Amino acid sequence: MTIPPDDPSLVPLDERSRLIIVWAFARLDVLAFAMASACIFSFGLFALTLLLVVKGAPPGMPIGPHLGELAGYLPGYSVSASGALIGAAYAALIGATLGVLLAMTWNLVHALLLALIRVRATLAAYPMD
Predict the structure, then answer these.
(1) Which of 62, 67, 107, 61 is nearest to 86 (CA)?
(2) Distance of CA 80 to CAs 5, 40, 47, 57, 118, Å?
(3) What contacts 81, CB < 8 A, 6 or more positions away?
(4) With contact defined as beta carbons under 8 Å apart, do 107 and 27 qualify?
(5) What distance in Å separates the CA atoms of residue 47 and residue 81, rounded to the nearest whole number?
(6) Looking at the 3D structure of the chain, how many domains does it have?
């Protein structure tokens, strides 16, 4: 397969259509998607926790009461600098798990759809006389 030029108008129409279909039905790399999801989830919770710690709270008020509710689900997590690290580890596990499930679902659905298209194309090739 050749690399298409930067200008889409220079690519022949049949090649352009084929490239669109290839990109639309591309398989996701499960490990890469899981790692990317883990990084995003981990960084997100870490940054949000540290933002609340740096921002602080008025005297007598708890810091980040809503985010602190995660402690009920993530043992050891708190809205503190050390809690940010613990929360980041938990978020990485949760993100990786969701990334694996999403990538596997994506690949399965696309494989089933492509199989259905192949079956329909094969059946359409035979006359039903």
Answers:
(1) 67
(2) 51, 20, 11, 12, 55
(3) 50, 53
(4) yes
(5) 10
(6) 1
User: Hunting for tokens 């050891």 — which residue is that?
Assistant: 76
Kindly state whether residue 45 falls inside one of the protein's structural domains: yes
* Mean pLDDT, contiguous 10-residue spans, the chain (129 residues): 58 71 83 98 97 89 89 94 96 98 95 87 77
Q: Which two tokens mark 20?
A: 């669109």
- Whether the Cβ atoms of residue 54 and residue 81 lie closer than 8 Å to each other: no
Residue 81 belongs to domain spanning:
29-122
**Residue 106 counted as domain residue:** yes
Token pair in block for residue 59? 């005297």
What are the structure tokens assigned to 94, written together?
């949760």
